[in-house]
Amino acid sequence: MRRTLGLTVAVGVVAAGLAAGGGQAMAERGSVVRGTYSAGAAHAWQPLPTTYVGNDGPAGTTIVVDPSAARQRYTGVGFSLDETSVSNLWKLTPEQRDRAVRLLVDPKTGAGFDRFRLTIGSPDLIEHLPFWSYDEPPAGIAEDRDLKYFSIKRDVDLHIVDTVKLIQKYNPRATFFASAWSAPAWMKTNNRFTGEVALQPGSTTSYYQVGKLRDDCIDVFAKYYAKYLQAYAKYGIDVDALTLLNEPGIDVVYPAMDISVAQQQKLAVAIKREVRRAGLRTQLYVHDFNFWDWRDPNSTATKNYHRIFDDPKTRAAADALAFHPYWGDPTVMRDAYEEFGKPVEMTETSDLNPETILDYFRLDASSYVMWAQTTDQDGGTLHWTPARDNNVDWAEVGRTTKWPNRLVTVNTSTKTFSVRDELYAMGQFAKYLGPEHTRVESSGTANGISNVVFKDAGDNFVAIVGNANATPSTVRITLAGRSFAVTVPAGAYATYRWHGQVPHRSHAPRFQDVQPVIADQYRTTQFQLRATDRDGDRLAYYATDLPAGVTLDAVTGLVTVHPTVSGEQNLKFRVTDGAAHDDVTVLVTTRPHGAPAGERIEAESYVAQHGWTEGGANFIESNPAASGGKNVGWTAAGNWLQYRVDVAQGTYNLELRVANGSGAPAPDAISIRDASGAVLSKVTVPDTGGWAGYQSISTRIPLPAGDQPLTVYCETGGFNLDYLQLSS
């Protein structure tokens, strides 16, 4: 057992309180609690019954809010203003375009999106070729070190600037940051703006980016960034942050550039110097790449770009860390935030699941910015390609590569638009949060109820609560000894706002020691947390993140463990009085047993596997739509996962929870095999409409009695596995 004492007190924090006995109504009436919810377009930003702090009652789930544990400041939710998206918006009539932008960004009548990504020169997502930088010297001029030919005329002509101004009209608090995919061609070693790839020595499948930033152009590239900021400022557009470079070193043939760790260090310092010389306060975000590429000790392939902070000057120049979610474990955001004390920004994602926004905020992300979210009814014209072909036919790429069903679809025939239902749930965050808000810790997901909580300096709280259940759920929100109960509609995201009252005491609560716990897999064990407080304050117990099968009673401190995974786990708990907190870590050792019928077996709870790299980015994936938040991905023919089951002899129904975003079913993709390797059954994985669009498929299998292995064998790949479950 390890114990740490937390005494950090958030300035001016408050909350609602925990009623005596956990469910009795309190006599003293507190501040008013106002709420709205969204459950698709039919129930968009609808008001909930007004209640008040102290109006408590029975609840299936308790959310503990801890203002003594302040985390990151909110920066925004929004999307990219890539040229493809902008081009589609400008195919609408002026009236429809205004209506679309207002629905997206207006905090009063729309979703209130408030954070937007600009591109410095062209990215891959453009409708109109050719790709461009802002400094294209005329024929016969090899380079332009004085940037005499610098121009953002393409941004003006393609309505990117106009779109920013329209966003500013409907949301004056909107903010903008910008990323370059590459330096101009003449600043690179291969004199090519688009990417150029080559095979790694000795490999037939692994590539590297040929085009590198010239060492003698680091300073001029930094001046190029400053000139971009000044050019946009002339249009009344404050670009408040730059990223160092979009996905540095990525091995693609659309615009990209390699930049070594040493060059990143020099460029970061140079950018900050040139920005200050220009009289600007623009921030600098470093990395701007996947979780995997920042730090992953299990990989020999990862770039481990955290090494740029080995240089103190680079660390001082960096204002934040930017991440993309396509590879790796999102918990690296929290690790980076705590290690380096820098804000974390999610600058590019294609995940429209509002639960991902909630989860990433809980992992200390300050923002959530989506990539390329406006295409037409056919999926748009864009120039992204996975091909590693330096002579790719870009016109053919634009003709054939389509990204349908983005957040916004523009019908170019009718000149109208439609939006996906996720927009309204996203608005439950963006409409009610602003730069004045700081996240505070709160208890983790339980009983299908998730949450994230923010406060401002005036002790006004905003709690966004998700209900993944198919029925309405009663929820108690407790803060500093006071609470209120609400009912969250089924399948909805609800936002509650109230003024809290945080005590300021001289003594923190203290945990009593907890001995290590021995448990058995798929069996129930309980242990008791106990804490004292010299001020006599009412205490609440919580945990920010508990594995599947572990629950905690916020009032009594009773922990119930029904582990689904064997081995050792360190479970972290916290107790708070609202003004201060204490932490305790309990070691739980779980002895392995086979899963009986009726128990859900998480895909990641395998006892053996073949075909994946342990700890690899393309194996166990974080996926908020999955049971337990994780799935096994990147399946391929010949891969297999082995599990243990303990059943009586008989024929059982086997449920497999799968997702397939390939666009086509995978016939006989999975075989189920017994201890001898014999095939018991084969099942087809249907097209589920997305890699997070889970569906259940079932088959019947005969099993002998006893504790035995059961193998899920990939006859083909192309699906994600969430869990499996036997039933009689």
UniProtKB/TrEMBL annotation:
Could you name the domain of life of the organism this protein comes from?
Answer: Bacteria
Task: Give the enzyme's main class according to its UniProt record, as a single word.
Answer: hydrolase
Q: What region holds the CBM6 domain?
A: 599-727
The record's annotation in Pfam families points to: CBM_6 (PF03422), Glyco_hydro_30 (PF02055), Glyco_hydro_30C (PF17189)
Identify the Gene3D superfamilies for this entry: Galactose-binding domain-like, Glycosidases, Golgi alpha-mannosidase II, Immunoglobulins
Give its E.C. classification number: 3.2.1.45
Report whether Signal shows up as a keyword of the record: yes
Instruction: State if Nucleus is listed as a keyword.
Output: no
Any signal peptide, and if so, which residues? Answer: 1-27
Instruction: Recall the GO molecular function terms of this protein's record.
Output: glucosylceramidase activity
Per UniProt, the keywords (alphabetical) are:
Glycosidase, Hydrolase, Signal
Family according to the record: Belongs to the glycosyl hydrolase 30 family.
Official protein name in the record: Glucosylceramidase
